[in-house]
């Protein structure tokens, strides 16, 4: 992580053994399908290179990223596994795609032609590509009715492109009773059947994200593209019961930087949004919204502030989180400067999950861990 000072009194611990365990567990769930670990967004904030190595150690058959530079970072770290780019990327980055042996995704003829031209410039005669078919996400991908035509184009002997894979992406897999997943998979199966009829079905078919992998066996195909479960975070409350065996990889921790007694009727932090109705002890924690701790975590309407763990006990955040620090009401607990504070993770038998923050904030665990900024040093255990 560039720029982060490891001596800082705030850090994120990443348990790489948990990553390896989570990939092994996912492999056992989806076998004989394989697992490709999604390490986009710097490994969902955990550190892409370290996570990628731990995932490969757990038997991941490959990696997936969103951006070209994310793939380049992995190659520069010496990682040789297949790396799939999940969406098409700007033409001026296609040289890097070829040079670093990234596997591109295409869904338009224009994209295929740009890639073929880049292959020509590099003397590449065989480039595996994957085609994303949009069966309902309405984000990227070729429409099911246009898929055959694109595969026929890719099958042309003159093109250096070779359709190695075909995939789709599920929009509601984390709601197992939602009929949308069956609809999407039916559309996808129809495309596969059409490709079969023309002898054009590529060898690598894939459809499942983490929720799809655990909740929808029919989505597993050749491999599952799992991100959030690799990090031990539930994709959504509807599949909590299916991911109980996955272990959270990231903890967010800090040390108390200041402690003081405050009197009843005094207020705390910007806007004086919290008033103490009793004399109490307040601890200051040196991590804030510039580090990814949301400003509103302690001041949501009608809710007490989110808890942190100090001395193995829960204590609420009081007042708004500031850019670099926030305050905690520790009551009459014996808390001292340098005591460890757990924001996300476990201490003394208590646990706070990324999804606990997410539930409070009206978001998902993904956003919580991706938001932890580079300023927070990552420590690998
Ligand atoms: C991010 C992403 C995934 C991973 O999803 P998780 O829910 O984190 O498992 C898989 N496929 C595509 C296309 C994605 O964009």
Architecture blueprint of SSEs:
Layout: E1 10-14, H1 16-30, E2 34-38, H2 40-44, H3 48-57, E3 62-65, H4 68-76, E4 83-85, H5 94-99, E5 105-106, H6 109-122, E6 127-132, H7 144-154, E7 161-167, H8 180-197, E8 204-206, H9 210-215, E9 223-226, E10 250-255, E11 258-262, E12 267-268, E13 274-275, E14 280-285, E15 307-310, E16 313-318, E17 326-331, E18 340-347, E19 350-352, H10 354-361, H11 365-370, E20 378-380
Parallel strand pairs: 1-20, 2-3, 2-9, 3-4, 5-6, 6-7, 7-8
Antiparallel strand pairs: 1-10, 10-18, 11-14, 12-13, 14-17, 15-16, 15-18, 16-17, 18-19
Alpha-carbon distance between the termini? 15 Å
Helical content class: 25-40%
Give a count of the beta strands, DSSP E runs of length 2 or more. Answer: 20
- Report the CATH C-level class of the largest domain: Alpha Beta
Radius of gyration equals 24 Å
> Quaternary arrangement of the chains shown?
single chain
The CATH architecture classification of the largest domain is: Alpha-Beta Barrel
> How much of the residues is beta strand, in percent?
15-25%
Question: And the CATH topology of the largest domain?
Answer: TIM Barrel
Count of helical stretches: 11
CATH homologous superfamily annotation of the largest domain: Alanine racemase
Give the overall shape. elongated
Bound molecules: pyridoxal-5'-phosphate
Stretches where pLDDT is under 50 for at least 5 consecutive residues are none
The biggest beta sheet is recorded as: 10 strands, mixed
Domain module tally:
2
Mean pLDDT comes to: 97
